[in-house]
Amino acid sequence: MLRHITDIDSYDFVVTRLFHEVEESTADSFDIYSMGEKIGLNEDEIDSVYFHLKRSDMIEQADGSLVRISRYGHMMHKGEISHGYIPI
User: Fold this and answer.
1) Mapped to the 3 state alphabet, what secondary structure does the chain carry?
2) Residue 27 Ramachandran class (φ > 0 left, ψ -120 to 50 alpha, else beta)
3) What is the C-alpha to C-alpha distance for residues 57 and 69, in angstroms, rounded to an integer?
4) What is the rounded distance in angstroms from the CA atom of residue 54 to the CA atom of residue 73?
5) Is residue 66 one of the residues assigned to a domain?
6) CATH number of the CATH domain containing 36
7) Model confidence at 1, in pLDDT bands (50, 70, 90)?
């Protein structure tokens, strides 16, 4: 079954806001849906952000439905590496 992924305006801006919110929290892991709602995304947009972040290895499963920013994700966000990749 094919999955429809919603386009998101200003994807980089959304990811930056998401990472900023996560870094301000004291928890190592977070619920992607709660965090997405906190920054004003609807459910389809959250699904799309999750899909792209997971596919590009910027987040990883933590515990149950919680995820955390991967080491690679932190490096991309902080500019320690300047290009990303998408696994084939």
Assistant:
1) CCCCCCCCCCHHHHHHHHHHHHHHCCCCCECHHHHHHHCCCCHHHHHHHHHHHHHCCCEEECCCCCEEECHHHHHHHHCCCCCCCCCC
2) beta
3) 9
4) 10
5) yes
6) 1.10.10.10
7) very low
> What's the distance, CA 49 to chain centroid?
6
83 occurs within a structural domain: no
What total of structural domains would you count in the chain? 1
Q: List the domain range (segments joined by +) for residue 53.
A: 11-78
pLDDT for 33-88, tens place per residue? 999 999 999 998 898 899 989 998 999 988 877 999 999 998 888 888 876 555 55
> In which region does residue 72 sit, left (phi positive, over 0), alpha (psi from -120 to 50) or beta (all else)?
alpha
Predicted structure pTM score: 0.79
Check the CA dihedral 68-72-77-83 and report its sign: negative
Residues in the chain: 88
